[in-house]
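Standup notes
- HV: blocked on the assembly model, inputs below
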Amino acid sequence: MRRAILSDVHANLEAMKAALTAVDELQCEEIVCLGDLVGYGPDPAEVIELVRDRGIAAVQGNHDAATANPGGDRSFNPWAREAIRWTRDRLDPATRAWLGGLPMSLGLGWALAVHAAPSAPEAWPYVLSLEEASREFQSFGEQICILGHSHVPMIVEHAHESSAMLGPEGAALLSESRYIINVGSVGQPRDGDPRASFGIFDDDDASYTLIRVDYDCRRTARKIVEAGLPPVLGERLLVGH
Ligand code: ZN
């Protein structure tokens, strides 16, 4: 059985459609989204509709929370705050409430899903370094924790009381090891590769693989400008940063 894990879609409909096409080609039986469906991008309602139509299980991200809760954008930079206000105006109250009702974490049985970090999902800390990841292993009981938030793919393996950073492209999942895995971002990658990023877990060979797919990021960047959102939010899509 294959499972697809998508995160940080950020209202980027072109990237989400390209990712889902790849997910369907890979015949994944379960799709989970790790939050930040909206914010930054030009198609929040369309992305939410797609997620709901496809029955994709989702956790809440900080941009989802800030859209749902007035005043929730206080810690955001000016561009992000402007995009949240723009997003809020384009979603009806029921859709905003749906975003605010998404769970902070999901126990999937085989993994724990959160947006930011298992130790404090509602405080949105980043897990960027080996040291930060290694502390997080005490905060969940599952073998695997999948997360997003930084938009940078990462795999940290924990075994025999020590942690190691693996290459982000994929890993064989050993039964005696535990893992924290960041699947990167579908809609606003920040690792220098502009292609949409997501992860696939395959039960058959106990593997995890990072997938990258091309999409028409110029079209999304154009839509961002046409929508009156900060142009920098489109320019960064072209370089993946
Ligand atoms: Zn995000």
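- HV (later): unblocked. The chain is about 30% helix and 20% strand. Helices lie at 13-25, 44-53, 62-68, 78-90, 93-100, 130-136, 217-226, 232-239.
- Next: hand off to the docking folks.
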